[in-house]
Amino acid sequence: MSDAKHAYRKTLSQRIFHFLGSMDLAITLLLTLAIASIIGTVLQQNQPYTDYLLKFGPFWFDVFESAGLYDVYSALWFLAILTLLVSSTSVCVIRHTPAMLNDMRNLRTHVQEKSLKAMHHRAEWRSDKAVINLASDLESRMQQQGFRAKQTLIDDGILVSAMKGGLNRLGYIATHLAIIIICVGGLMDSNLPLKLAEWQGRLTIETRDLPTSQIPAESRLPVGPQAFRGSINIPEGRSSEVAFVGMRDGYLVQELPFKIKVNDFRIEHYATGQPKSFETDLVLVDDDLAQPIEQTISVNHPLFHKGYAIYQASFSDGGSALSLQAWPLTKAAGKETVEFETKVFESREMIWGDQSLKLEMLSFRPFNINPDPTDDEPDRIRNFGPSFGFKLRTKTGEALEYINYMLPVEKDGRSFYLSGVRTSPAEEFGYLYLPVDVAGGLDAFSQFLTELHTKEIVESIAHNMMLETLADLPNSTAELEQNLEQTLVILVAMFIDNGFQGVAEFIDTAVPENERDNLAPAYLGMLQEMLARIYFNSHDGFEIDNTDSEQLAFLQDAVSAIGSLPRYGSPVYLMLTDYEHVEASGLQIARSPGKPVVYLGCALLIAGVFILFYLPQRRFWLLVKAKSGVTTVLLTGMSNRNPREFDVFFEQQKQILQHGNGNS
Amino acid sequence: MTNLAGTMRTDNSSPLVQWVWRIVIALSGVALLAMYFNVFDGYEITIVILSAITLIFLGQNWPQFRAHIVSVSLLSWFAVARYGTDLDLGERDFFLNYILSSQSAFMWMSALFVLATLTYFGGLLLRSEFTEKVATALTWSAATMGMVGLMVRWRESYLISHDVGHIPVSNLYEVFILFAVITALLYLFYERRYQTRSLGSFVLFVISAAVAFQLWYTFERHAHEIQPLVPALQSYWMKIHVPTNFVGYGAFSMAAMIGVAYLLKSWRQTRNPNGVMASALPDLAVMDDLMYKAIALGFAFFTVATILGALWAAEAWGGYWSWDPKETWALIVWLNYAAWLHMRMTKGWNGRPMAWWAIIGLFVTIFAFLGVNMFLSGLHSYGTL
Fold this sequence. Notes:
The complex is a heterodimer.
Chain A: H1 2-6, H2 12-20, H3 23-42, H4 49-66, H5 76-105, H6 113-117, E1 121-127, H7 131-144, E2 148-154, E3 157-164, H8 168-188, H9 192-199, E4 220-221, E5 228-235, E6 239-247, E7 250-269, E8 275-285, E9 293-298, E10 303-305, E11 308-317, E12 321-328, E13 338-343, E14 347-352, E15 355-365, E16 369-371, E17 381-383, E18 387-393, E19 399-411, E20 414-422, E21 430-435, H10 443-453, H11 455-471, H12 478-510, H13 513-537, H14 549-568, E22 572-580, E23 583-591, H15 595-614, E24 618-627, E25 630-639, H16 643-658
Parallel strand pairs in A: 4-7
Antiparallel strand pairs in A: 1-25, 2-3, 3-24, 5-23, 6-7, 7-8, 8-9, 10-11, 11-23, 12-13, 12-22, 14-15, 15-18, 16-17, 18-19, 19-20, 20-21, 24-25
Helix pairs in contact in A: 2-5, 3-5, 5-8, 8-15, 11-12, 11-13, 12-13, 12-14
Chain B: H1 15-36, H2 42-59, H3 63-83, H4 89-92, H5 94-100, H6 102-126, H7 129-160, H8 172-194, H9 200-221, H10 236-271, H11 276-280, H12 284-316, H13 325-345, H14 352-375
Helix pairs in contact in B: 1-2, 3-7, 5-6, 6-7, 6-9, 7-8, 8-9, 8-10, 9-10, 10-12, 10-14, 12-13, 13-14
């Protein structure tokens, strides 16, 4: 009330001070911070900017970018909320600490009898002891109970004031101070100085993919006391003297005062195939050291040196050497397999037939004990053998991404090579199943495909099939013969070019609509017959009926694989013939000078919280008076926490104080 | 029936009992350390010592807790002895198959918790003290079976293979059991202390909900199979970070359910002051106080848990704070209850708004506990559904 009355007389700074210290502001800030924090958990932070652009479209991408939503927790407005919270807390601490410290020590010896009598916890009794003796007696009893106690002479008697748990007030100071300390420590470890340097133009974020040596000086951070959190992938046998600090859509290079060499990276596995440990054998070479440090780090076991911490964070391929074999899938790609060497992360131009494609090797894994990547049995974990991923990019820049597994998978009792394809990383892979022949390879499939691509074979089989079909017809004409033979050839050609889809389109254009329902199955039947004849042509002549079911199943698998080749989009199927696995260890390197500060704050916070909740401040007063020859005692007490426990405690205390005090 | 609800019990155990308890626990701790001295590292030795101190502290004036610990120890020991070194005995041995293998124990726990909930509810409606006492006994047995299940599961993981062995607090399935047991124990503590059996049906309701989820998770997703630890979880921090967190979650859940009871009572009181709910539930002031106590306890433990998490993160992820969704949601939960406590302690708010807030707090907590794993991706991806 009086605050409001005098408010107009306050200076502006006093008003700001008052506003900052208000409980309403504090609670509002706590809740605002909570709500603001949600944003960064819903929107994945620090992803490549192209991903955001794809997700939100150009308009919202810009809006969100200017609101700093891709890195909310270092956005200016978020830091402003934090700063306000710290200021508010600081003002609270400054305002209340003197009173609290006073309250911790002050036994309140000037309390009025009237206010004592108004207290909820109260008891009175009489004694035949003298006032002075009784007061001293009560004082020492309180002291025995762990209270701080003191006698004060008043008009007509003695007031014994006692207190326990004064530290409770320290709980308040500790918790609030802790928040400030933690935030300051956090600030010391934040990337705010980098942002400031960038804003002043002293730093430029590098967004290009450059060799380390070519990165310009304005994107480099010298060795210094500043905090950073960077990462670096080091292939086995290689070393690095820098780490990369990710900033928005680019990075900065942090120089290190030492060289880290990765000797070996290992993954151990449980019997079930799940990874058990990721370990790197590191050698740290520092000119200040007589000998390099050799240490193996693993997840949860980093290496600390000179305030730098080196963590095992990830792993990747370090440029494994791969020997590949390209099996032609299209007519243009030829008939022979081509062998070549490449490396992971290497790009090279490939010419397959009339097509020139850029082959970008993306990944390699020596084995895959995975859940089934296809939808067949997603829960079943099995070994898919080595795998490698790559992109095939056309001249116009469009690319298809592939992943090939090198251990044939079983499906319905038959074996297939699995190759996945997709047009963008946002999609799931669609899988091509290439049937494996009796010998365990792709020769049978490839031979079948080659025959389908060989004009002479297709034409001669079409001719024979035409003759056989028309043999029963009494009055076949030359025109009919030619028509049928041509149709058979075209059906096969359509199927090879566009799969069953192509055949369906052909039927749609070649057959009048009213006959389509009747003739379409006939056309498909002819195609099937043709395909079977071509397939068995290379095997056992025309004895189709006598072939075993395995051969038929293979034919069917081969036909459905060929049918999906147009969607597969690659002129070749790449098979791995040999590899030399080189791994790279992904290290995280951090320096956080604020860490001890934050930890101090944390310790203070824990201590403060427990003191605040579980160490109640309890005060007792004993007013001892002489009234017409009898000594009376008025006991009152109060606690700032746990009123229910204090009910009991007060009773206990009363018993202790009354006991043996001449209670009449 | 004399209504003692809300009166604090302060009866202490006799000094003899207290000393026997202290010595038994201390000796057990020493025996454990002696047996495994060669395999324990400094952190594990510290954890054993701290656990012993906690048990001594909790049990010295709490007879039921002492009985609980003794039963858990004996039953677990019996189960471990029956197992020997053959995990397959879990399906062949009568005792293991039907009672004590971790799966059977969890099934017993589930059944007993649901039964306890129903019994508490019956006791509340019938105003029958006896029924409520039965419910308390059922809750104790459920908590005991849950704890035995956890202990036996711990052993079972080592029987699968030495390198697979780990404390069963590593995935969503295991922590759900931990949640049920810890929440039950917290409730039982307050129930005895403040003689508030009529709150049982409310608190046990949230446990039953957890049990229902747990059963769905077992049968639908086969989540009960013991999985080896991913490298990031292979740390002694897990042993302390996770249980501490669940004391927090348990206490917050209890506070929210007391909030429900509070709102129910205050609503019924205005309608029908002599009705069952209005008269059977403890005084509003008692519930308000309990709600505060639960949130204060939860907040204290949640603070510790979050800090432990930060310490662990500094060792595993390269920084004590990464604004990972789980971390951030922990902060959100913490800020929410910090605001609650400020309202209550300095602005003196109480009653219905605070009860509502406690209930909302539970939803925030549930999101931090489950929602983050279900909907958001981040470093904490150990418990995906």
